[in-house]
Structure formats: C-alpha cells, structure tokens
Amino acid sequence: MTGNHKDKSITRRRAIVVTGGTVAAGGLAVAGYQAAFADTAETATDAAATATTTASESAGTCMTLMSSVTEGPYYLDNALVRKDITEGKSGVPLTLRLTVVDATDGCTPVKGAAVEIWHCDAWGYYSGYTTANPGGSAPAESEDGSTANDNTFLRGYQIANANGVVKFETIFPGWYTPRTCHIHLKVHTGGQKEDGTYEGGTVNYTGQLFFDDAIAEEVFTLEPYAKHSGSYTTLDNDMVYDGGGASSGLLTLKAVHKKDPSKGYKATLTIGVDPDAENTGAGSGGGGGTPPSGAPSGAPSGAPSGAPSGTPSASASS
C-alpha cells in the first residue's frame, strides 16, 4: 500500500502545483480564518490573503509542479454547486478554503474556476456507493440517521471569486481500507453554472487533499468516527500520497478550539493550475490496489445531475 502511484502518462501540459504550508505562516492562515468569504463577492481580507499568497509564490514556490492523480472509483459527474455539502451528515465540522491560481502566469488568481470536491462520511461511505464496505468494522451507512441524500451527500462545486477563492463547509472525512484520510478534487475552467450544477468546460487538474496523521487519529476517537474500528492507513503507508507535504496536497489545518477538536477545523491550500491543461484523472493507473469488500468494480453509468440511480460503480481503489 505504499509508493507513488501518480499517473505517469500525463504530458507536460497536464501539470499542477499545490502550495500552502509555508504560505500560511506568512499570513494566509490568519487572514483566511478570520474572514467570512462570500461565494462570489470579494472582501478586503480576501484581497490581503491573496496578495500575500501571490507574493510568496512569485519567489519560485508556485512553479513546483506536480502531476495529476487518479479520480478514484467513487466519482460521480454533475455534482451540485453549493457551499455546504454536509446534508446533515454528522461529524467534526471542517471549513475548507482553497485558492486557485494560474501557475503559468505569475500565480494570478483564476477567477471563475470551478473546484469540485467529494469525500467519504465519518464511517467511510461515499454517496452513490453506500453499500460498499469501508473495511474494518462499521455500522451500515443507513444507520447514520441523518437527512442526507444517499446519492449526493458530501459532494459539491464552488466557483472561485475574483481572488480565486472557494470555500466549502463540510465534515472531517472518515477513512476506508486501504486509504488514508483524504478529499478528492477537480479544478474546472471554461464551464458555467446551469440548473444548480456545473456544465461544460475543461478539467485542468484531478487530485487529492490529505490530513496530518496526528490530527486525523485524534478526530477518529470521537463520535461518530469511533464506531468505525480497524486498521487506519497512515500517510507514510498510503498508496497515493507521496510524502511531498503541501506540494502533494497536504492541507494546513487549524483547530477552531485547540482544547476541543470536536469543535472543528479550518483547512487551507493554494492550488496553482495551468488553465490550458486537461487532466480528468479517469482511467489513470494511480491509486490502484484491492478495493474494499463490496466496493464498485465497473464504471458509473446513468448518473443524472448528481443523483445516480441504483448503485453505480467504478474501477480502482482510491
């Protein structure tokens, strides 16, 4: 379950840089955590945070390129455009703030970029695939008791504002065998919001976001995460994470209350893309391995507008 499983067939134009660990110390974290970022409106705090980020990246950090990785077996097309993706799912609150910049043009903000994310719930289940066993011992997803739609929970898009900023309200992801705690994402450009979903355009990057082991393992001792027992895969043993820190998608995390992790976390990262690149992550060899028992084994089909019928399926385990 170890090693670098990035897609090695990617061309030079299919490149991405993810930065953020060192930038946060320079002011991004402080400014970002205090602001209530609107979905489309630009605020003074946003501008200050983006200026700090761009200045730091112009020194060379921005051009540390990284290849796309697999989209994994649990992707569904046409997720809803929305800020809050929880749908009542229980878990430790997580505010995710991402800044999209153009790595080919001095790390200028990519206004209008659509960032799409999806991840499992506290017990390791994905919407659309709620019968896939997450490994270890966990209650059935149906025992969650929330009002979540089994086809759409913990999936969504946000459109970047003038500073390239998107913000999601979600929960800290759980885990499933054989993966570490992570969030999947795609960055799209050139499309548009239509009937509550994002349509058209080009996928410029497909990647994954990761969480510090110590923080994740502390969260997993809390309810409802503690109901899922078994062997958790750490970052060092994950099949996708390659140890590169922020440049490999490792989020900068800050607890809302240091002495009470149940109050939630705020996560930040800056993502530099080539808006002329294309990389869907579909069919890539990265992140292979043995899927959890009951995991999907074919390709999703007939999944209209983020609400698949039946239980769709996909290929690799990631």
Structure report:
Helix content is 11%, strand content 23%. It contains 3 helices and 13 strands; from the N terminus they run E-H-H-E-E-E-E-E-E-E-E-E-E-H-E-E. It has helices spanning 21-34, 44-58, 213-219; strands at 15-19, 66-67, 93-102, 108-109, 114-118, 155-159, 165-171, 182-189, 192-194, 197-199, 202-210, 252-255, 265-273. Helix 1 runs antiparallel to helix 2 (44-58). The protein is globular.
Topology:
Layout: E1 15-19, H1 21-34, H2 44-58, E2 66-67, E3 93-102, E4 108-109, E5 114-118, E6 155-159, E7 165-171, E8 182-189, E9 192-194, E10 197-199, E11 202-210, H3 213-219, E12 252-255, E13 265-273
Parallel strand pairs: 3-13
Antiparallel strand pairs: 1-2, 1-13, 3-4, 3-7, 5-6, 5-8, 8-11, 9-10, 12-13
Helix pairs in contact: 1-2
Compact description:
The protein is α+β, with helices and mostly antiparallel strands. It has three helices and 13 strands; from the N terminus they run E-H-H-E-E-E-E-E-E-E-E-E-E-H-E-E.
H-E order: EHHEEEEEEEEEEHEE
- Number of helices, where a helix is a run of at least 4 consecutive DSSP H or I residues: 3
Main beta sheet: 7 strands, mixed
Strand tally: 13
- Strand residues, percent: 15-25%
Rg from Cα: 18 Å
**Overall average pLDDT:** 76
Which regions are unreliable across 5 or more consecutive residues at pLDDT < 50?
Answer: 1-60, 284-316
Helix content: 10-25%
Q: Please tell me what the overall shape is.
A: globular
